[in-house]
Design goal:
By secondary structure, the chain is mostly helical. It is built from 15 helices and no strands.
């Protein structure tokens, strides 16, 4: 199975193709221009394949599908844009969608990276103190005829264990890094991470907010593409990761199949409630549903970033305090006997 393009690559493709379409250039000419401007062999192969498929089928969505590297949701929206004659609007909306995905990912990554680096540095300092510094102080104490206290002895044993089994700990560290890469960089790992995070109070609000940001953006794209609300919700289901949101979305689609209005369906299903539901209802009556959905998408994206920052702002100082206490205990365990000796010498 071929590897799907990243959000960064999808964003650049949609952005450039949207600009070309809005300039009055046809799909075939646009693909040829992008192929000529490609700087890597991989991208040239992709565009060459797209050009060939597009010439054979006359459809951009079919060409995207044949490559097997574009997401199914994107292909569905492109197909809808071709059928309704709004392909340029669809590509513009997809550009906004993938830009939003990149902003959310970058915001969460930036919020998490600094605390992780700081924890790693503090952990390295503690290991160095236990493995390298404490043995030196032990030798000094022996030469002076002093005994290290119970805390110092315990910490020294921990340091000796780390030094003696350093290979084992390095292997465990490598396994930990591989596990982190698995949970962050693979589809199965991300799915398991989502299931685990969905069970943690407060943290589980972040992926839900991200899902609602994707949902509202997807519905906005569907409406701009000329799709009816039911089709827009069905396409949005491919972008949702949380079981709770999927269940509400499926219920809303079921209500729509039963003849219920869009505003009533999203309210009765619990998909939206309160002010959000009223805003969507107003948007349906005034014909501005796409604009309302865009605003809700921006708000949900910001909510996800805000929740992430709140959690990091709580976890970060807690970790710093705990690690600082550990470093302080190590230093005090070796400094207090020396201070006591100096005090006796002065007296």
């Amino acid at each position: 199975m071929k590897q799907t393009l990243t959000n960064q690559e999808l964003f650049h493709f949609c952005e450039q193709f949207s600009i070309l379409l809005q300039s009055g250039i046809s799909c075939a000419e646009g693909l040829q221009i992008l192929c000529d401007d490609s700087r890597t062999d991989r991208s040239r192969k992709i565009f060459t394949s797209l050009i060939k498929s597009q010439e054979e089928t006359g459809s951009l969505s079919k060409a995207l599908s044949y490559t097997e590297i574009f997401p199914a949701s994107m292909i569905s929206y492109v197909k809808a844009g071709e059928e309704t004659g709004c392909l340029d609007e669809v590509m513009k909306s997809l550009t906004i969608h993938y830009e939003q995905e990149l902003e959310i990912s970058a915001g969460i990554r930036n919020a998490v990276t600094y605390p992780l680096i700081m924890l790693g540095m503090m952990g390295a300092v503690i290991v160095i103190l236990l493995v390298k510094v404490l043995p030196i102080f032990q030798q000094v104490f022996r030469q002076m005829g002093l005994q290290m206290n119970t805390l110092s002895t315990g910490l020294l044993r921990i340091g000796s264990g780390l030094s003696r089994y350093s290979v084992v700990f390095l292997v465990l560290l490598a396994v930990l890094i591989l596990c982190i890469l698995f949970f962050c960089c693979t589809a199965k790992g991300r799915e398991r991470s989502r299931k685990f995070l969905s069970r943690i109070p407060h943290i589980n609000k972040i992926p839900v907010a991200m899902d609602y940001a994707r949902l509202t953006q997807a519905v906005s794209m569907g409406i701009r593409s000329g799709l009816d609300p039911q089709s827009s919700l069905e396409l949005a289901e491919e972008l949702i990761s949380q079981a709770l949101v999927k269940k509400r979305l499926a219920t809303a689609v079921g209500f729509l199949n039963g003849g219920m209005s869009f505003a009533d369906a999203i309210t009765e299903s619990g998909l939206f409630s309160g002010m959000d539901a009223r805003l969507i209802s107003i948007g349906v009556r005034t014909g501005t549903s796409d604009e309302i959905m865009d605003k809700l998408s921006e708000r949900c994206s910001q909510e996800a970033l805000t929740l992430t920052e709140e959690i990091i702002s709580t976890v970060e100082p807690t970790c710093v305090i705990l690690l600082s206490i550990m470093v302080g205990l190590v230093l005090l365990s070796v400094m207090m006997p020396l201070l006591g000796l100096l005090s006796d010498m002065i007296v």
